[in-house]
Specification:
Elements (H helix, E strand, L loop, with lengths): L9 H4 L8 E4 L5 E9 L4 E8 L5 E4 L6 E5 L4 E5 L2 E5 L6 E4 L6 E5 L5 E4 L2 E5 L6 E4 L6 E5 L4 E7 L14 E7 L6 E4 L6 E5 L4 E5 L2 E5 L6 E4 L6 E5 L4 E8 L6 E8 L6 E7 L2 E5 L8 E7 L2 E6 L4 E5 L1
Antiparallel strand pairs: 1-28, 2-3, 3-4, 4-5, 6-7, 7-8, 8-9, 10-11, 11-12, 12-13, 14-15, 15-16, 16-17, 18-19, 19-20, 20-21, 22-23, 23-24, 24-25, 26-27, 27-28
């Protein structure tokens, strides 16, 4: 990406505000981490949260304040392909949740970070920073690239034949920012082969077949066109962005939507698919600003600055 132009603040004044809607508190307990696990292939969505006081992870059972403890404190979590993964507190291994409380199976050795998306799981080596792809069997990992500042995984499933059985397996996508933030790269699918697709970026967000990046100097957000070095500005800086994927993540069998949280944490905006065109999501019911937002499977969640988790009800 070349040096980017700042988007005029007046554009926000031309956007629409959503009608009657509200937010439902999901838990009275403060949370520190939220994981939305949308299985694009099966079309299911699960919600997990880490209880701030105990650092244990819980699974939401569909009714406010009805949560099931499923594991002890861990370093990091990621969801991919309908499964929930974690790095243990000492970063000595990667584990997958079995579906039974406190029963996690180790599938890999030491890891610094894990990333999930497009039905794939990736992990970085704590010593070298190199990134590895999980091949689906315990301790079966393939090195696919060198270190990066951060990575974002995405993909589209069943774009020709929907459903979990057979058909088009879809396309897994992985993107990374170089260690110094100088460039955005796309993984080719062949180990050690990456293509530079953009210049400097502060953060990247991926979902379905789409990739977004924030410009380091202005914080403005850009969308990748699909052609290397071709990006276009779509919005202004925000405190947080999140990509919501439903179904396969690509029309007509699914959709991908980008949400942004304003810098002051008081407004949420939904990108309408055209540069500078965003719709405001109602947040007037909150008495304090929001800290972060999460999404998946057509669901939007927000955590307030006092760490309480809410779900948006259109």
């Amino acid at each position: 990406m070349k040096k980017l132009l700042t988007i005029a603040a007046i554009s926000l004044l031309l956007l629409s505000f959503s009608g009657a809607a509200g937010w439902q508190k999901l838990w009275n307990e403060p949370v520190s981490t939220v994981v939305v696990n949308h299985d694009q292939n099966a079309g299911t969505t699960d919600l997990f949260a880490v209880k701030k006081s105990s650092k244990e992870i819980y699974e939401y059972r569909g009714t406010p304040n009805d949560w099931k403890r499923i594991g002890t404190a861990s370093k990091m979590y990621a969801a991919a392909g309908g499964d929930l993964f974690k790095i243990d507190p000492g970063a000595t291994g990667v584990f997958v949740y079995s579906g039974q409380t406190d029963l996690w199976q180790q599938i890999g050795g030491p890891a610094a970070k894990i990333y999930g998306g497009g039905g794939k799981l990736y992990a970085t080596n704590p010593d070298t920073g190199d990134i590895y792809e999980y091949k689906g069997q315990s301790y079966e990992w393939t090195k696919i690239g060198g270190p990066g500042k951060t990575f974002a995984a995405a993909g589209a499933y069943g774009t020709r034949v929907p459903g979990p059985q057979g058909g088009d397996p879809g396309q897994a996508l992985l993107f990374g920012i170089s260690p110094g933030g100088e460039a955005v790269w796309k993984y080719s699918g062949t180990p050690e082969q990456w293509q530079q697709i953009g210049g400097p970026a502060k953060q990247i967000y991926a979902g379905g077949v789409w990739l977004y990046a924030t410009e380091p100097e202005t914080g403005d957000i850009y969308q990748y066109s699909g052609t290397p070095d071709s990006w276009f500005a779509i919005g202004m800086p925000g405190r947080d962005f999140v990509v919501d994927v439903t179904g396969c993540g690509q029309p007509p069998l699914g959709t991908t939507v980008l949400y942004g949280l304003s810098g002051d944490g008081k407004q949420i905006w939904k990108y309408d698919g055209q540069p500078d065109q965003w719709t405001q999501i109602k947040t007037s019911g909150f008495s304090i600003p929001l800290k972060s937002i999460y999404a998946g499977g057509g669901n939007l969640y927000a955590v307030t600055e006092n760490d309480i988790l809410y779900k948006y009800r259109p």
